[in-house]
Amino acid sequence: MAVFADMIRDSSKLGPGDAEWLHLLVGDWQMIADLSFADLVLWFPSENQEYVALAHVRPSTSHTMFHADFVGDPIQPELDPLVRAASASQNIERSHETKIWNSDMAMRVEAIPMVRNGRTLAVITTHMDLSSSRMPSRLELTYRQCAYDLLKMGTLGLWPDFASPTGSRRGAPRVGDGLLRLDVDGIVQYASPNGVSAFRRLGDGESLEGRSLAEVTTGLLKDRRMVDESLPLVVTGRMPWRTEIESRGVSLSLRAIPLRDGTERFGALVLCRDVSELRRREQELVTKDATIREIHHRVKNNLQTVAALLRMQSRRMHSEEGKQGLEQAMRRVATIALVHETLSQGLAQNVDFDELIDRQFRLSAEVASPSQRVRTEREGAFGELPSDFATPLALVINELVTNAVEHGLQDRGGTVWLTAHRYKNDSDDDALTVGIADDGVGLPQGHIAEGLGLQIVRTLVTSELGGTIEWSPREGGGTVVTLQMALFSRH
Predict the structure, then answer these.
(1) Is residue 161 part of a domain?
(2) Which of 109, 171, 174, 415 yields a CA-CA distance of 20 to 30 A from 338?
Protein backbone atom coordinates (compact mmCIF):
# COMPACT_ATOMS: atom_id res chain seq x y z
CA MET A 1 0.00 0.00 0.00
CA ALA A 2 3.03 2.30 0.22
CA VAL A 3 3.15 2.68 -3.59
CA PHE A 4 -0.60 3.39 -3.64
CA ALA A 5 -0.42 6.03 -0.92
CA ASP A 6 2.65 7.73 -2.38
CA MET A 7 1.33 8.02 -5.93
CA ILE A 8 -2.11 9.18 -4.82
CA ARG A 9 -0.58 11.77 -2.50
CA ASP A 10 1.86 13.09 -5.11
CA SER A 11 -0.58 13.19 -8.04
CA SER A 12 -1.47 16.67 -9.26
CA LYS A 13 -4.43 15.44 -11.32
CA LEU A 14 -6.79 14.54 -8.51
CA GLY A 15 -9.54 16.88 -7.41
CA PRO A 16 -11.27 17.28 -4.03
CA GLY A 17 -12.37 13.92 -2.66
CA ASP A 18 -10.74 11.89 -5.46
CA ALA A 19 -7.99 10.42 -3.28
CA GLU A 20 -10.50 9.40 -0.61
CA TRP A 21 -12.69 7.80 -3.30
CA LEU A 22 -9.78 5.71 -4.61
CA HIS A 23 -8.90 4.66 -1.05
CA LEU A 24 -12.53 3.62 -0.55
CA LEU A 25 -12.38 1.63 -3.80
CA VAL A 26 -9.30 -0.35 -2.79
CA GLY A 27 -10.75 -0.86 0.69
CA ASP A 28 -13.86 -2.56 -0.75
CA TRP A 29 -12.80 -4.22 -4.01
CA GLN A 30 -12.14 -7.63 -2.46
CA MET A 31 -15.90 -8.07 -2.92
CA ILE A 32 -15.55 -7.52 -6.68
CA ALA A 33 -12.66 -9.99 -6.96
CA ASP A 34 -14.69 -12.64 -5.13
CA LEU A 35 -17.80 -12.05 -7.25
CA SER A 36 -15.92 -12.09 -10.56
CA PHE A 37 -13.64 -15.05 -9.67
CA ALA A 38 -10.82 -12.92 -11.06
CA ASP A 39 -7.72 -10.96 -10.10
CA LEU A 40 -8.18 -7.19 -10.10
CA VAL A 41 -5.39 -4.72 -10.85
CA LEU A 42 -5.69 -0.94 -10.44
CA TRP A 43 -3.75 1.05 -13.05
CA PHE A 44 -3.02 4.70 -12.36
CA PRO A 45 -1.45 7.20 -14.78
CA SER A 46 1.83 8.63 -13.56
CA GLU A 47 2.87 12.23 -14.22
CA ASN A 48 4.34 11.20 -17.62
CA GLN A 49 1.05 9.43 -18.54
CA GLU A 50 2.55 5.94 -18.20
CA TYR A 51 0.26 3.54 -16.36
CA VAL A 52 1.58 1.93 -13.17
CA ALA A 53 0.08 -0.97 -11.16
CA LEU A 54 -1.16 0.77 -8.03
CA ALA A 55 -2.82 -2.18 -6.27
CA HIS A 56 -3.70 -5.83 -6.83
CA VAL A 57 -6.29 -8.07 -5.17
CA ARG A 58 -6.70 -11.83 -5.53
CA PRO A 59 -10.06 -13.65 -5.32
CA SER A 60 -10.84 -15.85 -2.34
CA THR A 61 -13.41 -17.77 -4.43
CA SER A 62 -10.91 -18.97 -7.05
CA HIS A 63 -7.20 -19.40 -7.67
CA THR A 64 -5.06 -16.38 -8.51
CA MET A 65 -3.70 -15.67 -11.96
CA PHE A 66 -0.63 -13.87 -10.61
CA HIS A 67 1.62 -15.38 -7.97
CA ALA A 68 4.26 -12.66 -8.27
CA ASP A 69 3.76 -9.19 -6.83
CA PHE A 70 3.97 -6.53 -9.55
CA VAL A 71 2.54 -3.50 -7.69
CA GLY A 72 4.61 -0.46 -8.63
CA ASP A 73 5.61 -1.90 -12.03
CA PRO A 74 4.73 -0.20 -15.33
CA ILE A 75 1.95 -1.68 -17.47
CA GLN A 76 2.79 -4.49 -19.91
CA PRO A 77 2.80 -3.51 -23.63
CA GLU A 78 0.06 -6.01 -24.54
CA LEU A 79 -2.27 -4.55 -21.87
CA ASP A 80 -1.58 -0.85 -22.42
CA PRO A 81 -3.86 -0.30 -25.49
CA LEU A 82 -6.85 -1.89 -23.72
CA VAL A 83 -6.40 0.28 -20.62
CA ARG A 84 -6.00 3.46 -22.67
CA ALA A 85 -9.07 2.63 -24.73
CA ALA A 86 -11.17 2.17 -21.59
CA SER A 87 -9.87 5.42 -20.11
CA ALA A 88 -10.74 7.34 -23.26
CA SER A 89 -14.16 5.78 -23.92
CA GLN A 90 -15.17 5.62 -20.24
CA ASN A 91 -16.80 2.26 -21.03
CA ILE A 92 -15.87 -1.33 -20.22
CA GLU A 93 -13.48 -2.70 -22.86
CA ARG A 94 -12.97 -6.45 -23.36
CA SER A 95 -10.04 -8.28 -24.86
CA HIS A 96 -10.00 -11.51 -26.81
CA GLU A 97 -8.24 -14.52 -25.30
CA THR A 98 -4.87 -13.34 -24.01
CA LYS A 99 -1.77 -15.03 -22.69
CA ILE A 100 -0.51 -14.00 -19.26
CA TRP A 101 2.93 -12.51 -19.42
CA ASN A 102 5.57 -15.10 -18.48
CA SER A 103 2.94 -17.87 -18.61
CA ASP A 104 1.10 -20.12 -21.05
CA MET A 105 -2.23 -19.81 -19.21
CA ALA A 106 -5.09 -18.25 -21.15
CA MET A 107 -7.20 -15.55 -19.57
CA ARG A 108 -9.88 -13.03 -20.42
CA VAL A 109 -9.15 -9.42 -19.57
CA GLU A 110 -11.60 -6.57 -19.11
CA ALA A 111 -10.66 -2.93 -18.53
CA ILE A 112 -13.07 -0.85 -16.47
CA PRO A 113 -12.53 2.93 -16.16
CA MET A 114 -13.23 4.32 -12.70
CA VAL A 115 -14.94 7.63 -13.46
CA ARG A 116 -15.73 10.39 -10.99
CA ASN A 117 -17.18 13.79 -11.85
CA GLY A 118 -16.75 13.01 -15.55
CA ARG A 119 -13.02 12.26 -15.26
CA THR A 120 -11.32 8.84 -15.50
CA LEU A 121 -9.19 8.61 -12.34
CA ALA A 122 -7.85 5.09 -12.84
CA VAL A 123 -8.58 1.85 -14.70
CA ILE A 124 -9.29 -1.57 -13.20
CA THR A 125 -8.42 -4.69 -15.18
CA THR A 126 -10.03 -8.03 -14.32
CA HIS A 127 -8.11 -11.20 -15.18
CA MET A 128 -10.14 -14.42 -15.34
CA ASP A 129 -8.86 -17.92 -16.03
CA LEU A 130 -10.16 -19.51 -19.26
CA SER A 131 -8.43 -22.86 -18.84
CA SER A 132 -11.46 -24.54 -17.26
CA SER A 133 -13.79 -26.09 -19.82
CA ARG A 134 -16.73 -26.86 -17.53
CA MET A 135 -20.03 -25.00 -17.69
CA PRO A 136 -20.33 -22.31 -15.02
CA SER A 137 -22.92 -22.91 -12.29
CA ARG A 138 -25.86 -20.64 -11.56
CA LEU A 139 -23.95 -19.30 -8.58
CA GLU A 140 -20.97 -18.34 -10.76
CA LEU A 141 -23.17 -16.73 -13.40
CA THR A 142 -25.04 -14.72 -10.76
CA TYR A 143 -21.85 -13.67 -9.00
CA ARG A 144 -20.27 -12.51 -12.26
CA GLN A 145 -23.37 -10.55 -13.17
CA CYS A 146 -23.23 -8.86 -9.76
CA ALA A 147 -19.57 -8.01 -10.30
CA TYR A 148 -20.36 -6.57 -13.74
CA ASP A 149 -23.19 -4.44 -12.33
CA LEU A 150 -20.91 -3.00 -9.63
CA LEU A 151 -18.07 -2.31 -12.05
CA LYS A 152 -20.53 -0.68 -14.46
CA MET A 153 -21.56 1.57 -11.58
CA GLY A 154 -17.84 2.43 -11.22
CA THR A 155 -17.83 3.78 -14.78
CA LEU A 156 -20.72 6.05 -13.77
CA GLY A 157 -19.14 7.22 -10.50
CA LEU A 158 -21.84 5.44 -8.46
CA TRP A 159 -19.55 2.91 -6.81
CA PRO A 160 -17.87 3.00 -4.36
CA ASP A 161 -20.37 5.06 -2.38
CA PHE A 162 -19.16 7.36 0.39
CA ALA A 163 -22.24 6.30 2.37
CA SER A 164 -20.93 2.72 2.50
CA PRO A 165 -20.00 1.41 5.95
CA THR A 166 -16.36 1.97 6.80
CA GLY A 167 -16.44 1.05 10.48
CA SER A 168 -13.90 -1.42 11.80
CA ARG A 169 -16.34 -3.54 13.83
CA ARG A 170 -15.54 -7.18 13.41
CA GLY A 171 -17.94 -9.38 11.49
CA ALA A 172 -18.42 -7.41 8.25
CA PRO A 173 -20.08 -9.84 5.81
CA ARG A 174 -18.10 -11.12 2.82
CA VAL A 175 -19.19 -12.70 -0.44
CA GLY A 176 -18.36 -16.21 0.72
CA ASP A 177 -20.44 -15.81 3.88
CA GLY A 178 -23.72 -15.45 1.95
CA LEU A 179 -25.17 -13.33 -0.82
CA LEU A 180 -28.74 -12.40 -1.76
CA ARG A 181 -29.71 -10.55 -4.94
CA LEU A 182 -32.88 -8.47 -4.74
CA ASP A 183 -34.96 -6.83 -7.43
CA VAL A 184 -36.12 -3.22 -7.21
CA ASP A 185 -39.05 -4.22 -4.98
CA GLY A 186 -36.87 -6.10 -2.49
CA ILE A 187 -37.87 -9.58 -3.74
CA VAL A 188 -35.10 -12.18 -3.49
CA GLN A 189 -34.04 -13.20 -7.02
CA TYR A 190 -31.15 -15.39 -5.90
CA ALA A 191 -29.83 -16.66 -2.57
CA SER A 192 -26.47 -18.40 -2.30
CA PRO A 193 -26.33 -21.66 -0.29
CA ASN A 194 -24.54 -19.92 2.59
CA GLY A 195 -27.12 -17.12 2.54
CA VAL A 196 -29.95 -19.65 2.79
CA SER A 197 -28.17 -21.44 5.66
CA ALA A 198 -27.71 -18.16 7.55
CA PHE A 199 -31.43 -17.37 7.47
CA ARG A 200 -32.33 -20.96 8.36
CA ARG A 201 -30.28 -20.60 11.52
CA LEU A 202 -32.41 -17.56 12.31
CA GLY A 203 -35.51 -19.75 12.06
CA ASP A 204 -36.68 -19.37 8.45
CA GLY A 205 -37.35 -22.81 7.00
CA GLU A 206 -38.68 -21.85 3.57
CA SER A 207 -36.94 -20.96 0.33
CA LEU A 208 -35.88 -17.32 0.17
CA GLU A 209 -36.20 -16.88 -3.57
CA GLY A 210 -39.38 -15.16 -4.71
CA ARG A 211 -40.10 -13.72 -1.27
CA SER A 212 -39.71 -10.20 0.12
CA LEU A 213 -36.57 -10.05 2.29
CA ALA A 214 -38.21 -7.36 4.43
CA GLU A 215 -41.18 -9.63 5.18
CA VAL A 216 -38.91 -12.61 5.86
CA THR A 217 -36.83 -10.57 8.29
CA THR A 218 -39.86 -9.05 10.02
CA GLY A 219 -41.30 -12.52 10.63
CA LEU A 220 -38.08 -13.65 12.32
CA LEU A 221 -37.83 -10.77 14.80
CA LYS A 222 -39.16 -11.58 18.26
CA ASP A 223 -38.46 -8.31 20.05
CA ARG A 224 -39.32 -5.38 17.78
CA ARG A 225 -38.08 -2.90 20.38
CA MET A 226 -34.48 -3.97 19.75
CA VAL A 227 -34.61 -3.44 15.96
CA ASP A 228 -31.91 -1.25 14.42
CA GLU A 229 -33.45 1.80 12.74
CA SER A 230 -31.43 1.11 9.59
CA LEU A 231 -32.84 -2.44 9.19
CA PRO A 232 -35.78 -1.57 6.84
CA LEU A 233 -33.50 0.34 4.46
CA VAL A 234 -30.93 -2.48 4.43
CA VAL A 235 -33.31 -5.43 3.84
CA THR A 236 -35.05 -3.54 1.02
CA GLY A 237 -31.67 -2.65 -0.53
CA ARG A 238 -32.39 1.07 -0.57
CA MET A 239 -29.27 2.30 1.24
CA PRO A 240 -25.63 1.08 1.30
CA TRP A 241 -25.61 0.49 5.02
CA ARG A 242 -24.91 -2.32 7.47
CA THR A 243 -27.11 -3.67 10.26
CA GLU A 244 -27.57 -6.72 12.48
CA ILE A 245 -30.57 -8.82 13.42
CA GLU A 246 -30.83 -11.34 16.24
CA SER A 247 -33.27 -14.18 16.72
CA ARG A 248 -33.16 -17.46 18.66
CA GLY A 249 -29.66 -16.65 19.90
CA VAL A 250 -28.32 -16.19 16.34
CA SER A 251 -26.85 -12.87 15.22
CA LEU A 252 -26.79 -12.07 11.51
CA SER A 253 -24.81 -9.17 10.05
CA LEU A 254 -26.30 -7.69 6.86
CA ARG A 255 -24.80 -5.28 4.37
CA ALA A 256 -26.74 -3.84 1.44
CA ILE A 257 -25.26 -2.53 -1.83
CA PRO A 258 -27.90 -0.83 -4.01
CA LEU A 259 -27.51 -1.44 -7.75
CA ARG A 260 -28.05 1.66 -9.88
CA ASP A 261 -28.04 2.51 -13.57
CA GLY A 262 -27.65 6.24 -13.70
CA THR A 263 -30.24 7.68 -11.33
CA GLU A 264 -32.51 4.61 -11.25
CA ARG A 265 -32.14 1.78 -8.74
CA PHE A 266 -32.81 -1.61 -10.35
CA GLY A 267 -31.96 -3.94 -7.47
CA ALA A 268 -29.53 -4.60 -4.65
CA LEU A 269 -27.04 -7.07 -3.25
CA VAL A 270 -27.28 -8.07 0.40
CA LEU A 271 -24.28 -9.77 1.98
CA CYS A 272 -25.03 -11.73 5.15
CA ARG A 273 -22.85 -13.38 7.76
CA ASP A 274 -23.56 -15.38 10.89
CA VAL A 275 -21.64 -13.48 13.59
CA SER A 276 -23.13 -15.29 16.59
CA GLU A 277 -19.79 -16.70 17.75
CA LEU A 278 -18.02 -13.35 17.28
CA ARG A 279 -20.64 -11.52 19.33
CA ARG A 280 -20.57 -14.22 22.01
CA ARG A 281 -16.81 -13.82 22.35
CA GLU A 282 -17.13 -10.03 22.44
CA GLN A 283 -19.73 -10.37 25.20
CA GLU A 284 -17.38 -12.68 27.10
CA LEU A 285 -14.65 -10.06 26.85
CA VAL A 286 -17.02 -7.35 28.09
CA THR A 287 -18.02 -9.61 30.99
CA LYS A 288 -14.39 -10.35 31.80
CA ASP A 289 -13.55 -6.64 31.69
CA ALA A 290 -16.42 -5.91 34.07
CA THR A 291 -15.27 -8.74 36.36
CA ILE A 292 -11.70 -7.45 36.40
CA ARG A 293 -12.89 -3.93 37.19
CA GLU A 294 -15.05 -5.30 40.00
CA ILE A 295 -12.06 -7.24 41.40
CA HIS A 296 -9.92 -4.08 41.39
CA HIS A 297 -12.77 -2.21 43.08
CA ARG A 298 -13.06 -4.83 45.83
CA VAL A 299 -9.29 -4.99 46.33
CA LYS A 300 -9.29 -1.20 46.68
CA ASN A 301 -12.10 -1.40 49.28
CA ASN A 302 -10.29 -4.14 51.21
CA LEU A 303 -7.03 -2.18 51.21
CA GLN A 304 -8.83 0.91 52.43
CA THR A 305 -10.32 -1.20 55.22
CA VAL A 306 -6.81 -2.42 56.14
CA ALA A 307 -5.56 1.19 56.14
CA ALA A 308 -8.45 2.21 58.41
CA LEU A 309 -7.65 -0.65 60.82
CA LEU A 310 -4.00 0.41 60.90
CA ARG A 311 -5.07 3.99 61.62
CA MET A 312 -7.27 2.83 64.51
CA GLN A 313 -4.47 0.68 65.90
CA SER A 314 -1.96 3.55 65.69
CA ARG A 315 -4.24 5.71 67.84
CA ARG A 316 -4.11 3.09 70.59
CA MET A 317 -0.32 2.82 70.52
CA HIS A 318 1.56 4.41 73.40
CA SER A 319 4.96 3.97 71.75
CA GLU A 320 5.75 6.85 69.41
CA GLU A 321 7.97 4.59 67.31
CA GLY A 322 5.19 1.99 66.99
CA LYS A 323 2.66 4.67 66.09
CA GLN A 324 4.92 6.03 63.30
CA GLY A 325 5.48 2.51 61.97
CA LEU A 326 1.75 1.87 61.71
CA GLU A 327 1.17 5.24 60.04
CA GLN A 328 3.84 4.48 57.45
CA ALA A 329 2.28 1.08 56.77
CA MET A 330 -1.09 2.80 56.43
CA ARG A 331 0.32 5.21 53.79
CA ARG A 332 1.82 2.33 51.80
CA VAL A 333 -1.43 0.41 51.80
CA ALA A 334 -3.33 3.55 50.75
CA THR A 335 -0.92 4.06 47.82
CA ILE A 336 -1.58 0.54 46.51
CA ALA A 337 -5.33 1.10 46.97
CA LEU A 338 -5.11 4.24 44.82
CA VAL A 339 -3.69 2.24 41.89
CA HIS A 340 -6.48 -0.33 42.15
CA GLU A 341 -9.05 2.46 42.30
CA THR A 342 -7.69 3.84 39.02
CA LEU A 343 -7.76 0.38 37.41
CA SER A 344 -11.36 -0.17 38.51
CA GLN A 345 -12.49 2.86 36.48
CA GLY A 346 -11.24 1.79 33.03
CA LEU A 347 -11.24 -1.10 30.57
CA ALA A 348 -7.51 -1.24 29.84
CA GLN A 349 -4.96 -2.72 32.20
CA ASN A 350 -2.94 0.46 31.88
CA VAL A 351 -2.92 3.38 34.29
CA ASP A 352 -2.91 7.07 33.45
CA PHE A 353 -0.06 7.61 35.86
CA ASP A 354 -0.06 11.40 35.62
CA GLU A 355 -3.62 11.58 36.92
CA LEU A 356 -2.83 9.13 39.70
CA ILE A 357 0.44 10.73 40.82
CA ASP A 358 -0.98 14.26 40.83
CA ARG A 359 -3.15 13.25 43.76
CA GLN A 360 -0.59 10.97 45.39
CA PHE A 361 2.36 13.37 45.19
CA ARG A 362 0.69 16.20 47.08
CA LEU A 363 -0.94 13.83 49.55
CA SER A 364 2.38 12.13 50.39
CA ALA A 365 4.01 15.48 51.17
CA GLU A 366 1.10 16.68 53.30
CA VAL A 367 0.81 13.49 55.33
CA ALA A 368 4.56 13.40 55.97
CA SER A 369 4.62 17.03 57.15
CA PRO A 370 1.38 18.07 58.82
CA SER A 371 3.18 20.84 60.72
CA GLN A 372 5.56 21.98 57.96
CA ARG A 373 4.92 24.19 54.99
CA VAL A 374 6.05 22.10 52.02
CA ARG A 375 5.44 23.05 48.39
CA THR A 376 5.23 20.43 45.61
CA GLU A 377 6.04 20.98 41.93
CA ARG A 378 5.81 18.48 39.08
CA GLU A 379 7.26 18.59 35.56
CA GLY A 380 7.08 16.23 32.59
CA ALA A 381 4.68 13.41 31.82
CA PHE A 382 4.67 9.75 32.82
CA GLY A 383 1.96 8.76 30.33
CA GLU A 384 0.16 5.43 30.54
CA LEU A 385 1.97 2.67 32.41
CA PRO A 386 1.17 -1.05 32.79
CA SER A 387 -0.60 -1.83 36.04
CA ASP A 388 2.19 -4.14 37.20
CA PHE A 389 4.55 -1.18 36.75
CA ALA A 390 2.36 1.52 38.24
CA THR A 391 1.96 -0.04 41.70
CA PRO A 392 5.68 -0.38 42.59
CA LEU A 393 6.50 3.00 41.01
CA ALA A 394 3.78 4.73 43.03
CA LEU A 395 5.14 3.10 46.20
CA VAL A 396 8.69 4.17 45.37
CA ILE A 397 7.66 7.78 44.74
CA ASN A 398 5.61 7.79 47.94
CA GLU A 399 8.59 6.56 49.99
CA LEU A 400 11.06 8.98 48.40
CA VAL A 401 8.75 12.00 48.82
CA THR A 402 8.11 11.01 52.44
CA ASN A 403 11.85 10.62 53.01
CA ALA A 404 12.57 14.02 51.42
CA VAL A 405 10.04 15.75 53.68
CA GLU A 406 10.89 13.92 56.93
CA HIS A 407 14.68 14.05 56.58
CA GLY A 408 15.64 16.60 53.93
CA LEU A 409 13.12 19.22 55.07
CA GLN A 410 13.03 18.22 58.73
CA ASP A 411 11.86 21.10 60.97
CA ARG A 412 11.86 23.56 58.08
CA GLY A 413 9.80 24.49 55.04
CA GLY A 414 10.84 23.90 51.48
CA THR A 415 9.97 22.42 48.10
CA VAL A 416 9.85 18.90 46.71
CA TRP A 417 10.09 18.48 42.94
CA LEU A 418 8.92 15.48 40.91
CA THR A 419 10.06 15.21 37.28
CA ALA A 420 9.37 12.58 34.60
CA HIS A 421 10.93 12.12 31.18
CA ARG A 422 9.95 9.40 28.68
CA TYR A 423 12.28 8.53 25.80
CA LYS A 424 13.65 5.72 23.62
CA ASN A 425 16.70 3.96 25.01
CA ASP A 426 19.55 2.35 23.02
CA SER A 427 17.41 -0.78 22.45
CA ASP A 428 14.61 1.39 21.02
CA ASP A 429 12.39 0.53 24.00
CA ASP A 430 10.33 3.08 25.90
CA ALA A 431 12.23 4.22 28.95
CA LEU A 432 11.51 6.51 31.88
CA THR A 433 13.64 8.73 34.06
CA VAL A 434 12.08 9.98 37.30
CA GLY A 435 13.61 12.57 39.60
CA ILE A 436 12.62 13.46 43.18
CA ALA A 437 14.46 16.50 44.50
CA ASP A 438 14.27 18.74 47.56
CA ASP A 439 15.99 21.93 48.70
CA GLY A 440 16.65 20.61 52.20
CA VAL A 441 19.75 19.85 54.24
CA GLY A 442 21.29 17.52 51.66
CA LEU A 443 22.92 14.11 52.01
CA PRO A 444 24.13 13.26 55.52
CA GLN A 445 27.95 13.28 55.30
CA GLY A 446 28.26 11.16 52.20
CA HIS A 447 26.08 8.24 53.25
CA ILE A 448 22.39 7.40 53.31
CA ALA A 449 20.58 6.01 56.31
CA GLU A 450 19.10 2.63 55.35
CA GLY A 451 15.73 2.66 57.07
CA LEU A 452 12.83 0.37 56.20
CA GLY A 453 11.46 2.86 53.67
CA LEU A 454 14.68 3.01 51.64
CA GLN A 455 15.07 -0.77 51.84
CA ILE A 456 11.60 -1.03 50.30
CA VAL A 457 12.61 1.48 47.62
CA ARG A 458 15.79 -0.40 46.65
CA THR A 459 13.93 -3.72 46.50
CA LEU A 460 11.10 -2.36 44.35
CA VAL A 461 13.39 -0.49 41.96
CA THR A 462 15.71 -3.43 41.31
CA SER A 463 13.31 -6.39 41.42
CA GLU A 464 9.93 -4.98 40.33
CA LEU A 465 10.91 -2.09 38.06
CA GLY A 466 14.19 -3.52 36.77
CA GLY A 467 15.77 -0.09 37.06
CA THR A 468 18.51 1.83 38.85
CA ILE A 469 18.45 4.42 41.62
CA GLU A 470 21.03 7.10 42.40
CA TRP A 471 21.34 9.76 45.12
CA SER A 472 23.26 12.97 44.42
CA PRO A 473 23.56 16.50 45.85
CA ARG A 474 21.28 19.08 44.28
CA GLU A 475 22.82 22.23 42.88
CA GLY A 476 21.81 25.02 45.24
CA GLY A 477 21.36 22.68 48.21
CA GLY A 478 19.33 19.59 48.90
CA THR A 479 19.20 16.11 47.39
CA VAL A 480 18.22 14.59 44.04
CA VAL A 481 17.14 10.96 43.67
CA THR A 482 17.15 9.69 40.08
CA LEU A 483 15.36 6.55 38.89
CA GLN A 484 15.96 5.06 35.45
CA MET A 485 14.00 2.13 34.02
CA ALA A 486 12.81 0.57 30.76
CA LEU A 487 9.06 0.37 30.30
CA PHE A 488 7.57 -3.02 29.50
CA SER A 489 5.23 -5.38 31.27
CA ARG A 490 7.02 -7.56 33.80
CA HIS A 491 4.58 -10.45 33.47
Answers:
(1) no
(2) 415
